[in-house]
Protein 1
Amino acid sequence: MTSTRFLHTSDWQLGMTRHYLEGEAQSRFTGDRVETIRRIGELARARGCAFVVVAGDVFEHANLSRRDVGRALDAMGAVGLPVYLLPGNHDPLGPGSIYAQDAFRDLAPDNVVLLDGTGPWPVAEGVELVAAPWRSKRPDADPVAPALEGLDADGTLRVVVGHGMLDELDPDRNSLATVRRAPLDAALARGAVHYVALGDRHIRWPEDGRGAIHYSGAHESTGFREPGRGHVLEVVLDGGTVEVTPHEVGRWEHLRLQRQLDGPDDVDALRAELAALTPKERIILQTVFTGTLNLSDSAALEALLEQQAEVFASLNAWERHTDLAVVPDEHEFEDLDVGGYAADALEELRRTAGSDAEDAAVAGDALRLLYRLVEGPAR
Ligand SMILES: [Mn+2]
């Protein structure tokens, strides 16, 4: 039997926007996610790969601008090897498909091949892809199993290219579009197929890299539930053996920072931790702070976050899980130069902030603001 080496990637979702990215950060995110395709191409050529398969969700949706489609296709052209695109749930075939639009038809370079037919696609002598493209956003049956029909163990090396959630990973037990593992295992066991390149899951699976059924994960991180940077998989099939090697290609990172802050040491540790993160312009940071700080520490934290928010791609609190109380120390206002009307307001805010009242948190915010205004810029 023959052998082959290729890259397996998926879920590029080109044209994706993120609500927490503003202005220039969103532009860079969009541009970098296309640029990463060029690096995937460099890697594929350097590793001596024969082709690249994108296992679904190449594009985010069907309403991309001609410019976005054109730039994406330009990057795919630069790969310099055949790039096989599988339509997934974000970019299915059918009416209004992005693949039926003039932008794609006019601008697709010769090396880009749309896997728009279900079943075998010869890609090299003795090597076939077995494509399972999505034809609608909501299939009413396993989107992969039909592609396996009629495949014999005839010595052809076959790579199934499919999209969807495997039954053992699908949180929606009633989903009609769940990819059943049993038919894939059966096809592998009888030697009709040799590798299954899946997409839909944005993080690599299985983590231990064993077996012949794999999700590559997205090439660039798309959310806070995806730790680390994106990967592609280098796959070598040689006779009956499967060798899978992950390569980090992503440059962006979603980072969720959960920290308990109970005093100045904790704020200083956080300051050092933020300073050490790099490159900040490609790190999307979400904070989940809990604990209790006094006014000066709280003001220092606020100033720190304000400074850093400008440097990180984005820095926001996960409000739902943030539970940081601000409780003024007894002495905190003693040395401040506050008198008259402001002193009365201060006393009232202190009472409210320290109570169980519904507006205790608002009073805490007001206290902190007052403290910063009177004290001047915090450290
Ligand atoms: Mn998907």
Note: DSSP finds eight helices and 15 strands in the chain.
Protein 2
Amino acid sequence: MNTADIQDLCGAHLINTYGVRKMAITRGKGAMVWDAEGRQYLDFFAGIAVTALGHCHPAVTEAITRQAETLVHVSNLYYTEPQARLAKLLAEHTFAPRWFFANCGATANEAALKLARRYWAQKGPARPGIVAALQSFHGRTFGALTVTGQPRFHEGFEPLLPGVSYVPYNDAGALEQAVTPDVGAVILEPIQGEGGVRLPDAGYLRRAREICQARDALLILDEVQTGMGRTGTLWAYEQEDVTPDIITTAKALGNGAPIGAVGCTEEVAAGFTVGSHATTFGGNPLSAAAALATLTEVVKPGFLEKAAAVGAYFVDRLETLARSRRQIKEIRARGLLIGLELDGPAASVVDAMRERGVLCGSAGPRVLRFAPPLIISEEDAGCAADALDSVLGEM
Ligand SMILES: Cc1ncc(COP(=O)(O)O)c(C=O)c1O
């Protein structure tokens, strides 16, 4: 099928949540994808920060293929080896000895919020209040949507989850005031991704940790976008000298296989007891095998250092560009999560980049976002920077 045929079918039969999409992608390899007409693109968005190892990475493909031939699904009524091994590997590479597997970022956050509430309900007295940040993004299910501090996503869905209050991101004073005795948890992104690639000031997360500690509230860090090496270390919290009580991850965890996960301390894990939370698919053998293969690659010696180095090279190229292209107002970056604040709409730059064979995205109306696979080369980074140079030069 060509793009127009696929577009017609989708237009006729999909509920229209994504609008008209400009292209149909049929194939991917490494940092490249091909559309239905066979045109090649450099993928610098990676399915919104998902395909960290690039498309169809051999280790992940092999793991999925082997698992698909062995056992695709059995539900969580039974143990499976891929899930057991994945939980162990995550435990070895985080502060969190205990894990629950979900299907995506939103359902991981949903589980985290439920876990926090139930922890306090069990321990007593109940502390149902949750503090979230303005401009945050945590997903589209009701709980995750409620803690997403952007009213535009709430429109038409009220009433939302009760007990949630919002504070400006990066404002420790406001957080201190908001964490009252009925607040059981604070949920934050280490960097606000969808909210515009907003990095907090040095020390903000550390201060948030101290406030939670002093007020006895749980700190949930949503590493759905920042985790799995995206910011140069496996988890962004490592760079902040902060240990949360609960962490969520998804996106790159399965390199494209749908999976999310919540990790926590032993003490917090006791908040969930048999029957208090469950999912049919979460952590099923196919997704768990993909995630196990992905994480195994990401933690190999040198992998993250190489990704951080190519990230530094790319940002350096973009900074050089920003000196001559006045449309770039600011560059906010850590590792390979990069936002460029522009002086006009980012959407038109995204379109023009695609015309030049480079896929990127936006994060709000004026922020151009790059979240390429972590395996890109300096040559790939150079191509993307050159494309942006000529796009901005023509605008
Ligand atoms: C920080 C963060 N949390 C949660 C989500 C939701 O993840 P999903 O779309 O897999 O539900 C996203 C998605 O962009 C995200 O960036």
Note: The mean pLDDT is 98.
